[in-house]
């Protein structure tokens, strides 16, 4: 399963090499900064819409937030896919960090969904494409949870590849029930959040709209903070890993680390183009303005340079 056949499960090494592409300082910092900016922007837009509902929508902030939203959902799917392909070589330490980063990306995307739901409804094709990406992200996250749970059940040594969790026959004797319950709760919570996000994205008549936004944003911020804290405390770059690493590679700044930080500036390019008048962005649509599967065309979209 996912390359477990080629995994070496007979020799338990004393230490494993680091992987800066997963747990490097630049990777963790870029994920943290992206999540923080997205949640702050979401909160500012929700507060503005609540206090000044008649005020024109802020196109610049919405466009920037949309860029970070797309970036997070793609990064979450990408990093989980790579992790599964490398299941025959990744140890539980790196596998768990990938899971935490995927939870962070999911929470960030859902926080932006709360704010930009009317923007996503402008085109039903793009809306359903986002729905498919959300489902793929959920499926990968559940697979990761099953891997983590299986490694705990089998008592997998922390220096063996995560793929060996499906090969070992013994069961753990020292892992407490809290580990099992916590992992199952996270998997179930992901499914519940996905269901609520799907309803929120497609529902035509939403009751208690503002309350759902506020409560949902607080919940997603709490999930993001928890995932960030767990990843930082466990990482070599900022905390204490639970496995012996043979080098200090996750603390050094390589090309990949700098590239992760530079990716933060990609959504800013679109914002500059909007401010220069080179891109016209249509305002968000309201509920029941159009049929469910009809794309709304704006003849003369206005660019609102309101930050």
From TrEMBL:
Keywords: Membrane, Transmembrane, Transmembrane helix. The keyword Transferase does not apply. The keyword Protein transport does not apply. Signal peptide: none annotated. The chain crosses the membrane at residues 20-47, 93-116, 128-149, 180-202, 214-233, 253-272. PANTHER family: INTEGRAL MEMBRANE PROTEIN. This is Uncharacterized protein.
């Amino acid at each position: 399963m996912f390359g477990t056949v080629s995994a070496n499960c007979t020799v338990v090494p004393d230490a494993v090499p680091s992987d800066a592409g997963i747990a490097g300082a630049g990777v963790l910092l870029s994920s943290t900064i992206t999540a923080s900016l997205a949640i702050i922007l979401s909160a500012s837009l929700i507060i503005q819409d609540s206090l000044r509902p008649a005020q024109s929508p802020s196109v610049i902030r919405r466009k920037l937030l949309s860029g970070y939203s797309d970036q997070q959902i793609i990064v979450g799917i990408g990093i989980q896919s790579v992790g599964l392909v490398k299941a025959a070589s990744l140890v539980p330490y790196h596998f768990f960090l990938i899971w935490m980063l995927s939870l962070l990306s999911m929470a960030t995307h859902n926080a932006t969904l709360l704010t930009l739901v009317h923007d996503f409804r402008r085109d039903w094709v793009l809306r359903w494409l986002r729905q498919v990406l959300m489902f793929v992200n959920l499926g990968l996250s559940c697979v990761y949870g099953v891997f983590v749970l299986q490694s705990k059940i089998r008592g997998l040594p922390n220096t063996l590849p995560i793929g060996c969790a499906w090969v070992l026959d013994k069961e753990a004797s020292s892992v407490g029930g809290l580990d099992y319950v916590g992992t199952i709760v996270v998997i179930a919570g992901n499914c519940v959040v996905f269901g609520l996000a799907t309803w929120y994205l497609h529902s035509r008549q939403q009751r208690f709209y503002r309350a759902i936004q506020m409560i949902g944003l607080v919940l997603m911020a709490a999930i993001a903070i928890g995932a960030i804290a767990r990843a930082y405390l466990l990482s070599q770059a900022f905390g204490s890993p639970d496995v012996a690493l043979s080098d200090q590679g996750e603390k050094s700044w390589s090309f990949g680390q700098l590239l992760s930080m530079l990716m933060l500036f990609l959504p800013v390019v679109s914002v500059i183009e909007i401010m220069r008048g080179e891109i016209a962005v249509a305002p968000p649509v309201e509920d029941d303005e159009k049929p469910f599967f009809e794309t709304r065309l704006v003849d003369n979209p206005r660019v609102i340079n309101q930050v």
